[in-house]
Design brief:
Layout lengths: L13 H14 L15 E2 L5 E2 L3 H4 L32 E5 L4 E2 L12 E6 L5 E3 L49 H10 L8 E2 L3 H5 L17 H4 L5 E7 L6 E6 L2 E6 L10 E2 L6
Antiparallel strand pairs: 1-2, 3-4, 3-5, 5-6, 6-11, 7-11, 8-9, 9-10
């Protein structure tokens, strides 16, 4: 008669489980990044009409309960900030030399003039566009670019269009996103050389949803981004169509052909959890 071998159950001590977690954490470190709120401070009905943000209206038992404006950073009236910004946003001006400067500092070409804006919540640093119609420079908001990326690992199977010299006022030999990013990095804007096209998730971190849907410039903070433009390309291509790429404007995110009209670009430096 065949005998069955007894099955021995080995119970791992609790201290060993804890040690395993510590070893894994040390071998695979990760970073937690804060997230911006939406910027929404108003309240609305089911039909999207504005309504008073009173307790009777927006409390858990109110007529229109659990409004976005009741929750998160935007609802915190005593929120401590490094810099300043609307609702829960927190921005600091950065000089051409890469140093934090006072909120009153004007945009300009000098080493101590304002040139970039740091998001103190996500840690990302954003280019600030200039606006000089008489003599537009490299970062002028009037300049537009075709989407172009020769990296086959990230271009979605289509490099896009090289562009011409006309849409960016001859500030580049070819007015495309790849050449623009390279030029900003070569200029060492704000002391950095890690500038890149933002992902659409990056762009949404500075979107103020309160301004979405307006036929106005992209809904970034007008104090910390000044000339905001009507749209900006992202680095993201669509999954289904190789020739399509995402851009953001006052209505949110949209897709367009890489060979379509040139659009504005706002580059970003640094990384965050959304990439």
């Amino acid at each position: 008669m065949m005998k069955h071998q007894p099955r021995i159950l080995l119970h791992r001590p609790m201290w060993l489980s804890s040690l395993s977690v510590l070893v894994i954490a040390a071998a695979f470190p990760f970073h937690v990044h804060a997230v911006n709120d939406t910027g929404t401070t108003a309240c609305y009905t089911d039909s999207q009409f504005a309504v008073a943000c009173t307790a009777a209206v927006t409390s858990d038992t109110g007529t229109y309960p659990r409004q976005d404006s009741r929750m998160g950073r935007d609802a915190n009236t005593t929120l401590a900030k490094v810099g300043a910004g609307a609702a829960g946003f927190d921005f600091t001006k950065i000089s051409n030399a890469g140093n934090a400067v006072a909120a009153s500092t004007a945009l300009g070409p000098g080493a101590n003039d304002w040139a970039c804006t740091r998001d103190n919540v996500t840690g990302l640093v954003w280019e600030v566009k200039t606006s000089n119609p008489a003599t537009p420079g490299l970062r002028d908001v009037a300049n537009t670019y075709t989407w172009y990326n020769t990296d086959t690992a990230s271009n979605g199977g289509d490099a896009g269009s090289v562009g011409t010299t006309t849409t960016c006022n001859s500030t580049l030999a070819a007015c495309n996103t790849q050449d623009y990013v390279a030029a900003v990095n070569a200029a060492n804007l704000c002391g950095r050389s890690d500038w890149r096209l933002p992902s659409y998730k990056d762009a949404f971190t500075i979107f103020n949803a309160q301004a979405l849907g307006n036929s106005t410039p992209t809904p970034f903070d007008p104090t910390y981004f000044l000339a905001r433009g009507s749209s900006t390309f992202t680095s993201n291509t669509t999954v289904t169509v190789a020739n399509n790429v995402f851009y953001v404007d006052s209505n949110g995110m949209n897709a367009t052909s890489k060979s379509s009209l040139a659009r504005q670009v706002r580059v970003v430096a640094g990384t965050n959890a959304y990439q």
